[in-house]
Write a structure and sequence with these properties.
Radius of gyration: 20 Å
Number of helices: 2
Strand content: 35-45%
Shape: elongated
Number of strands: 12
Helix content: 10-25%
Strand order of the largest sheet: 1-2-5-8
Structural class: mainly beta
Length: 154
């Protein structure tokens, strides 16, 4: 699952559309290559391990924000429309990935992860974009966690 949160910028102008919402969108991992070289011995712990990770994924759903879309003027004042369903984050996320490469086999391929190796987190990958020029900043952080080991119950 990818968690998203969309809201107005701190300097939001009331004449601009108001887009807001949060939730999750399912993803599917189509291919993954994960090779971890963890540090051996206490002397190497500070140097950390290495992670060679490649993950090809796809988004299976659309985000569910609301938008007032563009305002109208009434007596020389901006009036917002009633909020309606808008798939703002998911469409902007796709545009941001296309900034890297429009080929889906490349735009949804995550490489060059940062090894973490603590608190159950193996590695992270942060993506940044301008939503294809449609937003100031979009940041997506993926976290690869260890699978929990459970003991069998009688």
């Amino acid at each position: 699952m990818i968690t998203y949160q969309t809201g107005p910028l701190p300097q939001w102008n009331k004449c601009d559309p108001l887009v807001q919402g949060q939730g999750t969108v399912p993803i599917r991992v189509f291919q993954a290559f994960i090779h971890i070289d963890e540090p051996s011995g206490e002397l190497n712990v500070s140097s950390g391990g290495l992670a060679k990770i490649e993950l090809l994924y796809g988004i299976l759903g659309m985000s569910q924000e609301t938008s007032t879309f563009w305002h109208y003027n009434l007596n020389h004042e901006c009036v917002l429309n009633p909020p309606r369903l808008a798939h703002f984050w998911s469409s902007r996320y796709m545009r941001g990935r296309a900034e890297v490469d429009p080929d889906p086999m490349k735009m949804f391929l995550l490489r060059d992860w940062t090894y973490v190796g603590r608190d159950g987190v193996v590695a992270t990958k942060t993506l940044r974009s301008t939503c294809g020029g449609m937003c100031d900043q979009e940041v997506a952080t993926f976290t690869l966690k260890e699978r929990g080991i459970s003991s069998p119950h009688p």
